[in-house]
C-alpha cells in the first residue's frame, strides 16, 4: 500500500526541483530530450557505420574472392577463415556484414529470402557444447527447409546434398554463392570442438564453399587463434584478419565530428567535464563504442533534469501535441520566477534594462528573451566550432612542419568550450608569424579553402577574417613581403581566435543548451560495489521508496532504527558487535527493535483511531501486522506465539540476505557464532 | 599379371617413394586382402591416404582381380555411429543421396534402416553384397550361382583415416570393425590408417584380432623433390587448360623448379619434411622466384613485337643466372618458413607481400627489409586494452607467478621500503637455494598457479596505488591514503573487465561459473612477454615485483 501511494506521488513529479518546475515540465523535457538525443544518436551511429564500412567491405571482398582467388600450386584447398576483431566496437558490425553478404550478387530475380547472395549462418558458443551439436547447428541452420531425410542432421553430406539442390535451382549463381558461417564470440568456443568442426569442413570444401567469419574480442597480436589451436588445425585454414581500429583516435574522431563539426549542429553541446569523463572512462575501463553511446545518452538524460531545459528547442511550449502549459497559472509562477531571475541576471539581454518595467511585461516578453538567448547561443557555438576547426587546421599544418604540441585533442576541446585555449593559440600564432614564404603560401590557400567550404551565414559573420586572408593572398607575391604578411596573419588569427574561442558559459541562459561543468553521474554507470551495498544498508531511505523515515517524530539515532527494514537493523547491530557475533544475542537485540516498532505502530494506530473514530478504511501499518493484533491491545497467548514466529522468520530472512551479500562467514569454530567480514564500514 | 605390374608402375610414378607400399598393397588386393589391415604412418598420413585411394580406384582394372568397392571414411567426420554407417554404406554402394528424393540413404526408396545399430549395419552389408553380386547379372539369383565362381565375389574395402579418433569417439565400434568380415560373413577388408601405433588404441582383453601391419617409411629427399615436381606438372597442366596467360607454371620452367625445390628442401627439411608443407611453402615463394625470368621474357616479347619479329620461346636462364636467382632468394625462403610453417600468415598473402620487386633487385636492402618486417610481425601490441584491464592482467600474472606467501613482503609496504626489502630478501634466498640440494623450479616454468579473486584484487589495489594514482582525476571526497584506490578496485567495471578478460581467455577461470560459495579462482593466461609489454606500457617495473625474476 505504501508502495502504491509513493509511486503515485512520483508519477506526478519526476522532478528534482518541484519549486521551480512547470506542472507538466517532465513531459515537455522528455520531449525535448528525445529530439536532442535522437539527433545526437543518429550522428554517432552514422559515424560508427562509417568506421565499420572499410571492415565490412574487406570482409565482403574476402568472402566473394574465397575459392576463386587462390594461389596456384597449393597442395590442398584451404578453408577460408576471416577473423574480425571487434573488441572496441559494437556487435552491430556483424549485422552489417551479414546483411551486406545477403544482398551481395542479388540480381532481384528471386523474391525468395534464401535466393541470391550468400547464405549466412550464425553460430553461438552455447550452441556448441560438443561436435554433434555444432554440426547440427551448422547444418540445420543452413538448410532452411525441414528435411524429410534419411541422412542424419549432423551429416555433412546432408549439407552437400542441400547445397547441390540449391545450386541447381539457382542455376548460374553456382560459382558465386558461398555458405558463410559466422562464429560469434569465438574465444568462448571449445577449442576441441572447433578443431573438429574445421577439420570436417575442410574435407567438404570446395564442393561446399564454406567460409567462416570469426568474431574475436582479443587482439590481433598476440593472436588467440595461434596460441590456442594446434598447427594441424591452422594448416587446414587460410586465416585472414580484419582488425577494427580501436583506440583513442576513434573516440576523438567521433567527439570531434559530433560536437565540433562545421556542418553538424548538435542540439546539446557537451561540456568539459563530460568530455573529460568520457575520455578517461574510455581509456581506463572500456574502449567500447556502445559504452560511448550510453555515456552520451546519460549526459543528455542528466542535462534534462534542469527545469529550464524545456526551452531547448522552442520557447513556445507544447507545440508538438502535449498540452500547452498555462504560464499564467499560479502553479507556473515558481518556474517563471527562476526564469526571470536568470534573464535578469544576464545583462546580455538588452531589451529589459529596467527591472521595474517587469511588472508590466507578460510572459510572452520573457519568452522572446529566451528566443534571443537561443539565437545568441547557437551563433556563438557555431562560430566557436568553426574557429576550433580552423585552429586544428592551422595546428595540423604546423605539425607537419615539425611544430610540437603538448595537448591532446580532448584537452583542446575542453579548452575551446571553456575559453581557455589562449596559450595554445598564441603559441600557434607566434609560430605562424615565423613562416617562410612558400609555407605561408600553402597555409593561406589552406585557409581560403577552409572558408570556401563553410556556409553563407558563417561567411557573413566571419567577413573580417576572410577578407583579411584574401587581402593577404592578393598582396603576397614575393619573398620580400612574406615576413610582413606572416607577421600580420599571425596577429589576425590570434585576434580571431581570441574573439571566437570564448567560454560558452558567458552566453545568457547557456545551461539550456550546454552541459557546462556539471559533473557526470559516474556512480550510475560504474558504481563501487562495496560502497553501494554499505550505503544501501546504512541509508535505505535513499534507495527505496517504501522506506520513509518519519520526519514528524523527533527522532534520535535509536528511533531512526525503528523505521528501517529488517536487514538494515541487523546490519546496524552487526557493526556494533565484535569480531565474532553470537547469533542468539543478535536475534535478541533484533527482536527488541521489532518490539519497539510494533509498540510504536500500535500507539500511532490508537491515536489515529481515536481521531478518526474507527472508520472502516483504516490505514495499515508499514510493517507486516495483522488486523487482529491491532484490534486487540491485550494479546492472547496464541498471538504472542505467532508474533514470536514472525520475528524469528524475519530474522532468518534478514540474516540470509546478509549472508548472501557475503557479510557473514560461517567458521564453525565457535558454537552459535558467525564471523564478521566487514570491519570498517563507512559511517 | 602384366596389368597388375603396369598399374603398380604407373602408381609408383605418380607417388614417388611409395613403390614398395603400392606393390605390396596391390598384390594383396588383387589376390587376397586380409580382413583387417593397420597402416601406421607417423609422417604424412594424408599423402598415404591419397595413395591408397588411387590404388583402390584403379585396382578393378586388373582383369583377374575381384570387383572392388571402396569407401574412404574419415573418423573425425563420422563422429557418431549413425553417420559412420550411412557414410560407409552409401560409399560402398556408390549411392549419392540427393535433395530431390529427400536425402534417402542407400538403398533408396526402401523403408529398411541399416543405420540404427551394428546388427542392422551388418545386415546392410550382407544385402549390399547380394545386390552387388546380383546387380550386374540380373538373371541369376541366389547365392548358389555367385559362389560358383569365386572371382565374381565383390570385395569390399573400407579405409578409415585417423583411426586413432575412433577409439575416442566410437570406442564401441572399434572391436566390431576389426572383425567385420567375420561378423558380417561378407568378403570385406577394413584398413585403418593412423599416425599412432595399433598398440595404443587396441581394445583391451584381446577383443580384436591382430591386424596385418604395414608401416610406411618416411620419404627421402629424392622422393619429396620428385613429388613436388609432379605437383608442378599437375598445376601446369591445370593452368594451361584454363587458358590463363600466367607464365608462372610454364612447363619449360620445370628444370628450374627442380633446382628451386632442391634448395627449398635443403633449408626446410631441418624443420619438416612433410611434402605438403614443402609444397605449401614452395607455392608461396615460387611466383616471386620466377618473376625476374618472366619479366625478362615479357620484355623480350615486347621487343620482338616492336621489331615485328617472331616472339621468342621462353628460355631458362643460364647456369650463372640460376645461381644468382637461388642465392638472391635464399634468405627469403627462411623468412617464408618462419612465417608459413606456424601459419602466422597464409601462403597467398605471403606471396603477395613478398613479390619480387625489380626496384629492389639491385641492392640487398630488399632482403634486409623483409627480415625486419618478419621480426616485427610477432611483436606484441597491447594498445587495444583499456588501462584497467592492463593492470588486471599484470596483477593476474603476478598472482599466478609469485607464491601467495610473498605478497605481504612484495606489496605490503610503501614503495621505497619495499625495494630495499626486496634486495635483502632476494640475496639470502639465492644463497640458501644453492646450499640446500632442493632445486626449486621457477613458477614461470611450472605454469601459472591458480589464485582467488580476492588476491587478484588486493594485488591490483597495490599496483594501482603505486602506479596509477597520478593519472586518476582528482576527487576531493577521498582524503585517507588508499581510500580512493579501494573505491576504484571495487567498481563494477573492474569486475566486468575481469569477466571480459576471462571470455578473451586472457584469464582462465578455474571454478565453475555457477558456483556461488567461495571466491572464484583464476589462472593467468598471458605469457611473460605479454605481461612485460603490458607493464612497459603502464610503466610498472614488473621485474621488481616478481618474487623469482628468472
From TrEMBL, chain A:
Residues in Origin recognition complex subunit 3 N-terminal domain copies: 25-311
Stretches the record annotates as Disordered: 612-639
GO biological process: DNA replication initiation
Positions in coiled-coil regions: none
Domain of life of the organism encoding this protein: Eukaryota
Location of the Origin recognition complex subunit 3 winged helix C-terminal domain: 530-679
Predominant cellular place of this UniProt entry's protein: nucleus
Composition-biased stretches (Acidic residues): 628-639
Location relative to the cell: Nucleus
InterPro entries, per database record: ORC3 (IPR020795), ORC3_N (IPR045667), ORC_WH_C (IPR040855)
A GO CC term attached to the entry: nuclear pre-replicative complex
One Pfam family this sequence matches: ORC3_N
Similarity comment: family membership: Belongs to the ORC3 family.
Annotated protein name in UniProt: Origin recognition complex subunit 3
TrEMBL record, chain B:
Domain (ORC5 lid): residue spans on this chain: 257-295
Region entry Disordered, spans: 352-381, 405-436
Annotated compartments: Nucleus
UniProt keyword list: DNA replication, Nucleus
Ranges where the Origin recognition complex subunit 5 C-terminal domain occurs: 385-545
Biased composition regions of type Basic and acidic residues, renumbered to the chain: 406-418
Official protein name in the record: Origin recognition complex subunit 5
Amino acid at each position: 500500500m505504501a508502495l502504491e501511494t509513493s509511486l503515485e506521488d512520483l508519477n506526478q513529479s519526476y522532478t528534482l526541483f518541484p519549486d521551480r518546475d512547470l506542472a507538466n515540465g517532465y513531459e515537455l523535457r522528455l520531449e525535448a530530450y528525445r529530439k536532442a538525443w535522437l539527433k545526437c544518436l543518429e550522428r554517432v551511429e552514422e559515424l560508427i557505420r562509417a568506421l565499420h564500412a572499410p571492415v565490412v567491405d574487406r570482409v565482403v571482398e574476402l568472402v566473394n574472392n574465397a575459392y576463386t582467388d587462390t594461389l596456384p600450386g597449393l597442395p590442398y584447398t584451404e578453408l577460408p577463415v576471416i577473423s574480425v576483431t571487434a573488441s572496441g566496437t559494437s556487435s552491430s558490425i556483424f549485422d552489417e556484414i551479414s546483411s551486406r553478404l545477403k544482398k551481395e550478387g542479388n540480381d532481384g530475380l528471386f523474391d525468395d529470402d534464401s535466393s541470391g547472395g550468400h547464405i549466412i549462418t550464425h553460430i553461438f558458443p552455447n550452441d556448441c557444447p560438443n561436435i554433434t551439436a555444432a554440426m547440427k547447428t551448422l547444418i540445420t541452420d543452413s538448410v532452411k527447409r525441414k528435411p524429410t531425410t534419411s541422412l542424419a542432421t549432423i551429416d555433412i553430406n546432408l549439407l552437400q546434398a542441400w547445397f547441390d539442390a540449391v545450386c541447381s535451382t539457382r542455376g548460374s549463381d553456382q560459382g558465386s554463392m558461398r555458405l558463410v558461417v559466422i562464429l560469434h564470440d569465438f574465444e568462448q568456443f571449445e577449442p576441441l570442438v572447433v578443431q573438429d568442426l574445421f577439420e570436417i569442413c575442410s574435407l567438404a570444401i570446395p564442393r561446399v564453399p564454406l567460409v567462416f567469419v570469426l568474431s574475436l574480442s582479443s587482439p590481433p597480436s598476440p593472436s588467440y587463434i595461434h596460441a590456442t589451436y594446434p598447427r594441424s588445425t591452422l594448416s587446414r585454414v587460410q586465416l585472414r584478419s580484419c582488425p577494427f581500429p580501436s583506440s583513442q583516435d576513434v573516440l576523438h574522431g567521433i567527439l570531434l565530428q559530433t560536437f565540433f563539426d562545421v556542418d553538424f549542429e548538435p542540439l546539446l553541446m557537451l561540456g568539459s567535464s563530460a568530455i573529460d569523463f568520457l575520455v578517461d572512462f574510455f581509456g581506463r575501463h572500456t574502449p567500447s563504442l556502445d559504452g560511448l553511446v550510453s555515456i552520451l545518452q546519460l549526459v543528455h538524460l542528466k542535462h534534462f533534469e534542469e527545469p529550464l531545459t524545456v526551452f531547448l528547442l522552442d520557447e513556445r511550449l507544447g507545440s508538438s501535441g502535449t498540452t500547452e502549459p498555462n504560464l499564467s497559472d499560479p502553479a507556473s509562477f515558481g518556474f517563471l520566477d527562476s526564469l526571470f531571475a536568470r534573464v535578469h541576471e544576464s545583462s546580455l539581454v538588452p531589451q529589459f534594462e529596467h527591472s521595474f518595467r517587469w511588472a508590466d511585461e507578460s510572459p510572452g516578453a520573457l519568452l522572446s528573451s529566451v528566443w534571443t538567448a537561443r539565437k545568441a547561443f547557437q551563433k556563438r557555438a557555431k562560430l566557436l566550432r568553426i574557429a576550433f576547426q580552423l585552429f586544428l587546421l592551422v595546428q595540423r599544418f604546423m605539425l607537419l612542419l615539425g611544430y610540437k604540441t603538448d595537448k591532446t585533442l580532448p584537452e583542446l576541446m575542453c579548452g575551446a568550450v571553456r575559453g581557455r585555449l589562449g596559450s595554445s593559440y598564441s603559441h600557434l600564432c607566434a609560430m605562424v608569424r615565423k613562416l617562410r614564404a612558400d609555407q605561408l603560401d600553402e597555409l593561406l590557400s589552406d585557409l581560403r579553402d577552409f572558408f570556401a567550404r563553410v556556409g553563407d551565414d558563417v561567411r557573413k559573420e566571419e567577413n573580417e577574417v576572410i577578407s583579411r586572408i584574401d587581402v593577404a593572398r592578393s598582396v603576397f607575391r614575393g619573398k620580400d613581403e612574406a615576413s610582413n604578411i606572416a607577421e600580420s596573419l599571425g596577429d589576425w588569427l590570434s585576434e580571431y581566435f581570441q574573439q571566437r574561442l570564448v567560454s560558452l558559459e558567458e552566453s545568457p541562459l547557456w545551461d539550456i543548451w550546454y552541459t557546462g561543468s556539471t559533473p557526470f553521474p559516474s556512480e550510475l554507470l560504474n558504481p563501487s560495489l562495496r560502497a553501494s551495498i554499505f550505503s544501501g544498508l546504512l541509508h535505505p531511505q535513499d534507495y527505496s521508496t517504501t522506506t520513509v523515515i518519519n520526519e514528524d517524530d523527533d527522532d534520535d539515532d535509536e528511533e531512526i532504527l525503528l523505521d528501517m527494514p529488517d536487514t538494515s537493523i541487523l546490519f546496524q547491530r552487526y557493526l556494533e558487535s565484535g569480531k565474532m557475533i553470537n547469533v542468539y544475542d543478535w536475534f535478541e537485540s533484533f527482536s527488541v527493535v521489532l518490539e519497539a516498532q510494533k509498540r510504536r505502530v500500535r500507539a500511532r494506530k490508537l491515536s489515529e483511531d481515536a481521531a478518526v473514530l474507527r472508520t472502516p478504511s483504516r490505514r495499515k501499518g508499514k510493517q507486516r501486522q495483522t488486523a487482529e493484533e491491532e484490534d486487540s491491545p491485550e494479546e492472547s497467548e496464541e498471538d504472542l506465539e505467532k508474533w514470536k514466529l514472525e520475528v524469528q522468520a524475519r530474522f532468518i530472512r534478514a540474516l540470509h540476505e546478509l549472508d548472501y551479500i557475503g557479510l557473514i562467514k560461517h567458521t564453525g569454530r565457535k558454537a552459535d557464532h558467525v564471523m564478521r567480514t566487514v570491519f570498517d564500514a563507512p559511517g | 599379371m602384366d596389368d597388375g605390374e603396369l598399374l603398380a608402375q604407373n602408381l609408383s610414378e605418380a607417388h614417388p617413394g611409395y613403390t614398395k607400399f603400392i606393390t605390396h598393397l596391390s598384390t594383396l588386393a588383387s589376390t587376397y586382402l586380409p580382413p583387417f589391415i593397420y597402416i601406421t604412418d607417423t609422417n604424412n598420413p594424408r599423402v598415404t591416404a591419397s595413395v591408397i585411394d588411387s590404388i583402390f580406384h584403379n585396382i578393378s582394372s586388373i582383369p583377374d582381380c575381384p570387383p572392388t568397392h571402396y569407401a574412404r571414411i574419415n573418423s573425425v567426420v563420422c563422429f557418431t555411429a549413425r553417420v559412420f554407417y550411412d557414410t560407409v554404406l552409401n560409399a560402398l554402394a556408390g549411392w549419392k543421396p540427393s535433395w530431390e528424393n529427400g536425402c534417402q540413404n542407400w538403398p533408396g526408396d526402401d523403408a529398411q534402416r541399416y543405420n540404427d545399430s551394428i546388427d542392422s549395419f551388418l545386415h546392410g552389408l550382407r544385402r549390399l553384397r547380394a545386390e552387388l553380386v546380383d546387380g550386374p547379372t540380373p538373371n541369376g539369383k541366389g547365392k548358389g550361382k555367385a559362389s560358383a565362381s569365386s572371382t565374381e565375389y565383390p570385395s569390399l574395402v573400407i579405409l578409415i583415416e585417423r583411426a586413432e579418433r575412433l577409439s575416442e569417439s566410437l570406442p564401441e565400434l572399434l572391436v566390431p570393425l576389426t572383425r567385420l568380415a567375420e561378423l558380417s560373413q561378407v568378403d570385406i577388408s577394413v584398413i585403418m590408417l593412423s599416425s599412432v601405433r595399433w598398440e595404443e588404441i587396441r581394445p583391451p582383453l584381446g577383443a580384436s584380432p591382430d591386424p596385418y601391419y604395414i608401416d610406411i617409411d618416411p620419404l627421402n629427399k629424392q622422393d619429396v623433390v620428385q613429388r613436388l615436381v609432379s605437383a608442378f606438372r599437375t598445376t601446369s597442366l591445370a593452368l594451361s587448360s584454363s587458358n590463363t596467360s600466367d607464365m608462372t607454371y610454364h612447363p619449360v620452367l620445370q628444370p628450374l623448379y627442380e633446382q628451386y625445390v632442391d634448395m627449398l628442401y635443403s633449408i626446410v627439411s631441418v624443420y619438416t619434411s612433410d611434402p605438403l608443407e614443402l609444397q605449401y611453402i614452395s607455392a608461396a615463394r615460387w611466383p616471386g622466384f620466377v618473376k625476374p625470368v618472366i619479366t625478362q621474357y615479357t620484355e623480350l616479347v615486347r621487343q620482338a613485337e616492336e621489331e615485328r619479329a617472331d616472339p621468342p620461346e621462353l628460355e631458362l636462364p643460364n647456369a650463372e643466372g640460376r645461381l644468382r636467382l637461388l642465392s638472391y632468394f635464399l634468405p627469403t625462403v627462411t623468412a617464408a618458413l618462419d612465417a608459413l610453417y606456424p601459419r602466422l600468415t597464409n601462403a597467398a598473402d605471403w606471396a603477395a607481400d613478398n613479390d619480387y620487386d625489380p626496384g629492389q633487385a639491385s641492392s640487398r636492402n630488399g632482403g634486409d627489409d623483409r627480415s625486419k618486417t618478419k621480426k616485427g610481425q610477432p611483436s606484441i601490441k597491447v594498445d587495444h586494452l583499456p588501462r584497467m584491464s592492463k593492470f588486471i592482467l599484470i596483477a593476474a600474472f603476478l598472482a599466478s607467478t609469485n607464491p601467495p606467501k610473498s605478497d605481504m613482503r612484495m606489496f605490503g609496504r610503501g614503495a621505497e621500503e619495499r625495494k630495499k626489502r626486496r634486495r635483502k630478501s632476494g640475496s639470502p634466498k639465492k644463497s640458501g637455494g644453492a646450499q640446500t640440494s632442493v632445486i626449486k623450479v621457477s613458477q614461470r616454468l611450472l605454469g601459472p598457479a591458480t589464485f582467488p579473486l580476492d588476491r587478484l584484487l588486493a594485488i591490483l589495489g597495490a599496483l594501482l596505488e603505486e602506479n596509477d594514482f597520478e593519472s586518476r582525476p582528482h576527487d576531493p571526497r577521498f582524503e585517507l591514503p588508499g581510500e580512493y584506490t579501494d573505491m576504484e578496485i571495487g567498481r563494477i567495471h573492474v569486475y566486468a573487465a575481469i569477466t571480459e578478460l576471462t571470455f578473451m581467455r586472457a584469464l582462465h577461470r578455474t571454478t565453475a561459473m555457477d558456483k556461488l560459495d567461495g571466491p572464484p579462482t583464476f589462472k593467468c593466461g598471458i605469457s611473460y612477454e605479454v605481461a612485460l609489454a603490458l607493464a612497459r606500457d603502464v610503466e610498472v617495473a614488473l621485474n621488481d615485483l616478481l618474487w623469482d625474476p628468472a
